[in-house]
Each structure stands twice: as structure tokens, then as C-alpha cells.
Amino acid sequence: MSQGSTAQVRLDAHVRALRRCTTCPQMHRPAVSGGAVMSKILLVGQAPGDKEPTLGRPFAWTAGRTLFRWFEESCGMSEASFRASIYMAAVCRCFPGKKATGGDRVPSREEIANCAAWLDAECNLLEPELIIPVGKLAIEQFLPCQSLADVIGRQQRIRRAAREVDLIPLPHPSGASTWPRMEPGKTLLGRALQRIAAHPAMAAIKKKSVAPRRPRRSLTVT
Q1: From 193's CA, which of 52, 76, 135, 203 has a CA 20 to 30 Å away?
Q2: % helix, strand, coil for the chain, step of 5
Q3: Domain for residue 120, yes or no?
Q4: Residues ≥6 apart with Cβ < 8 Å to 211
């Protein structure tokens, strides 16, 4: 078995185990996964909403439509292409549930710590060259984030699971957040997407996804 095949088998087993996780009693299962996609780019969301467990994939609702539009416009990648070529993780993989006052519950520190082991394992399995954390909760798992304006639009070298990797954060695409649509957020978001589009890991994915054209066969007229 080749090294690539071995890595895929290990990632398949990882995702199966992730989907069976029952560690956090307050979380609403099942855990949501984007699938065992071998990729050098790792996108890290915050936590699934109430629709994602039923639909069976991350960013499956309105925030996802905005997120994939960003990548369509900046990188020329459709949602289907993105899902097929980039590993999609999260700070917490299960829906946290609703707050009594409305809105989704923020995961506890213990729940975040429990799920961090899955993220560390993915960093070791995939050896990513680029991590894209989406939203403040996700960004804070990699570096301090007092203000989105301090980190969005920048590329930084960080260390995670004993590995050095490039980090380019994005704001959360929730419709409830006006930050990406107002200055300086709008400009900084555009700058971040440009950096992602120009990153060698993204260039390699786009090059691989473009299939070579077959030469056209001439027609013989008889």
C-alpha cells in the first residue's frame, strides 16, 4: 500500500471515530464532518448550527452560502469543488444547542478542549500547509484575538500540534454579523481572501482540479 493510500485509510478511520464521538453530554449529536478529504488546506469553523447535523455537512445553511460565495469570487471555486478538495473541521463538531435567551449556545471550555484532540489529530494526519480559521472562536484556538481588525487580512506562521503552518483567518459569514460588510472589515476580508487565493497550497489544489483537455479528434468524411 502506498504512503498516500495509508494516509487516506487513517483519515477515513479518524472521521468514522469522530462521527461516533459521545464525549460531551450537553452536545447534540451526531458530530458533523466534511468527510475524509486529503488536503493541505484545513478550514476550521466554530461549531455547527441546528441544520448541519440533519443535512450532514458543515456550513450547510445561510452562513455557508456566504462563505462559499467568498471563495467562488476570490478563488474561482464552486461549493462542490471546495468541499471535495479542502478538509473542513471546527472548534466543536456537535451542535451546542440553544441558549434559554435565544441563539446558539457558546461551547464551554471543557467542550472546546475535548474537541481540540480531533483537530490536533487532523493536523498530524494531513500535515496542512494552510489553516483558515473562520470566526473569532476559531481564530482564538490559534492566536490571541482581541479584535478582528488585528488579525483579518494578515498571514501568520503559527505552531499547532508540533507543526508550523501558515494561518489566514476569516471573519464569520453569519448574516447577523455586519463586520465583513463594513469598513475596515470589508477591505480586510478582501485582503485575506486575496492571500488565500495566492497561497501555494491553494494554487496546487486549483492546478490539480483542472483536468487536462483531450485533443479533439478530427472527423473523417466519407
Answers
A1: 52
A2: 40, 15, 45
A3: yes
A4: none
DSSP 41-80: EEEEES---SSHHHHTSSS-SHHHHHHHHHHHHHH---HH
In total, how many domains does the chain have? 1
Cβ-contact 8, 87 below 8 angstroms: no
Residue with cell 482581541: 146
Query: Rounded distance, CA 81 to CA 74, Å?
Result: 14
Helix locations, the chain, DSSP H = 3-19, 52-55, 62-75, 79-85, 109-126, 136-139, 185-198, 200-209
**Residue ranges making up the domain that contains 105:** 29-207
Task: Identify whether the C-beta of residue 202 lies closer than 8 Å to the C-beta of residue 82.
Answer: no
CATH number of the domain within which 189 lies: 3.40.470.10
